[in-house]
Amino acid sequence: VGLETLLQNTGPRPFRALKVSINTLNSAWKRTGSQRRSFRTSGILSRQPLPVTKLCFSLFLSVEFQLSKQYGPVFSIQMGPQKTVVLTGYETVKEALVNQADAFADRPIIPMFQELAQGFGESYLCIGNPFETTTIMNAAVANIIVALLLDKRFDYEDPTYIRLLKLVNENIRLTIKQNRDELFAFINATFIKHLRDLDENDQRSFIDSFLIQQQEVMESFKLEKKKKTNAYFHNENLKAVVANLFGAGVETTSTTLRWGLLLMMKYPEIQSELKVQEEIAKVVGSSQPRIEHRTKMPYTDAVVHEIQRFANIVPTNLPHATATDVTLNGYFIPKGTHIIPLLSSVLHDESQWEKPHKFYPEHFLNSEGKFVKRDAFMPFSAGRRACLGETLAKTELFLFFTSLLQGFTFQPPPGTSQEDLDLTPAVGLTTSPMPHQLCALPRF
Ligand code: HEM
């Protein structure tokens, strides 16, 4: 199946029937106590419920600013039968996820949520000729997870690997039971056969360590002569963890890198021998980039951060739920309420960023050109549920980006100008760039 067909089949079509409306919190919950803030009683923004397709696009990518300007940083939306509270802006999201971390740390169960994720396309790399980057980036990034899990890497042409990538990606996109079964069977066959050559004194991968732990726990049960359930170190959990790491760690990182290359094509003066490539030449030279180089490369570090801020690849965050009754900004929110801490509203918060809607690496540089951390930089979210893979992802982004720009200059295909390059995000659970091609010109 080609990229076009898959992209056409991706999307929220099954939910057209589902209607959504946006309300202020007051219409969601009646006040029940005098300590609770008094809500306005007429606050319905859209009496004609919006179809969820429209809502996803507008709410998550731009309209949140207008909604929050009109209704404040905390408002509720009605998605079918489900009331959901949306939190917008750096201060409010930080107040919930960081200052009241425990109360906002639960996850709701939303079976259909996964279906909104992005697509997967087939393509091939052909240096010199224009090419599409999805498959090659996914393959490169997935091999990092494979290395951690298995201490090996797959050849990009290996049919088993191609099938694995397809299964993982389709699984993010669609909840296909058949795929999940095949993925789990694959993990069983490929990963758990590890057990045969397991050496306690030479643990080289995550799966080695997991299986050793499993054996130790079972041994201790036997010694204690107790019948206990091994709550964590059982095969079902191993399969789930492996599937989750692929699901969460591949598309996010590879999509960010694809945004990075697109932005370098759009802004050649930033990519150029005077900026990123100049810094790479000065600090790394022709040796292999290492993570220790990062502190000596403030401009490149700032560009990678700005790519993440601008690309805003998980605009809606993953959904949270309140673990207890809680009061936020004076609003009472009952336990078990679905919460969307909107990351796009933090990454584009006008009170936090000088040029929130522009690609502007100077957001992360001081007047002396030194790298500066920014509190509103939250692409990985914050608090107790923040991304588990943040450190790994940051390392990968720096190393892949630096290596690619060390070796190549990225340009639009012949006949396409910088102005033609479209920075509008494609809509999905993660926002990837619109399908595009690029040319990689070897630098040496
Ligand atoms: C650029 C790359 C990445 C971005 C932008 C990203 C972003 C996120 C975000 C926004 C969340 C939701 C946090 C929340 O609910 O508050 C999340 C969760 C998660 N991420 Fe990442 N992520 C990235 C890469 C990775 C990688 C490389 C891995 C693992 C290898 C990973 C593993 C996870 C896991 C396991 C969760 C769920 C944590 C939980 O439920 O407690 N992510 N990520």
TrEMBL record:
<dbReference type="GO" id="GO:0020037">
    <property type="term" value="F:heme binding"/>
</dbReference>
<keyword id="KW-0408">Iron</keyword>
<keyword id="KW-0503">Monooxygenase</keyword>
<dbReference type="InterPro" id="IPR002401">
    <property type="entry name" value="Cyt_P450_E_grp-I"/>
</dbReference>
<comment type="similarity">
    <text>Belongs to the cytochrome P450 family.</text>
</comment>
<dbReference type="InterPro" id="IPR036396">
    <property type="entry name" value="Cyt_P450_sf"/>
</dbReference>
<keyword id="KW-0479">Metal-binding</keyword>
<keyword id="KW-0256">Endoplasmic reticulum</keyword>
<keyword id="KW-0560">Oxidoreductase</keyword>
<dbReference type="GO" id="GO:0005506">
    <property type="term" value="F:iron ion binding"/>
</dbReference>
<dbReference type="GO" id="GO:0006082">
    <property type="term" value="P:organic acid metabolic process"/>
</dbReference>
<keyword id="KW-0472">Membrane</keyword>
<dbReference type="InterPro" id="IPR001128">
    <property type="entry name" value="Cyt_P450"/>
</dbReference>
<dbReference type="GO" id="GO:0016712">
    <property type="term" value="F:oxidoreductase activity, acting on paired donors, with incorporation or reduction of molecular oxygen, reduced flavin or flavoprotein as one donor, and incorporation of one atom of oxygen"/>
</dbReference>
<dbReference type="GO" id="GO:0005789">
    <property type="term" value="C:endoplasmic reticulum membrane"/>
</dbReference>
<dbReference type="Pfam" id="PF00067">
    <property type="entry name" value="p450"/>
</dbReference>
<dbReference type="GO" id="GO:0006805">
    <property type="term" value="P:xenobiotic metabolic process"/>
</dbReference>
<dbReference type="InterPro" id="IPR050182">
    <property type="entry name" value="Cytochrome_P450_fam2"/>
</dbReference>
<dbReference type="InterPro" id="IPR017972">
    <property type="entry name" value="Cyt_P450_CS"/>
</dbReference>
<keyword id="KW-0492">Microsome</keyword>
<keyword id="KW-0349">Heme</keyword>
<protein>
    <recommendedName>
        <fullName>Cytochrome P450 family 2 subfamily W member 1</fullName>
    </recommendedName>
</protein>
<feature type="binding site" description="axial binding residue">
    <location>
        <position position="387"/>
    </location>
    <ligand>
        <name>heme</name>
    </ligand>
</feature>
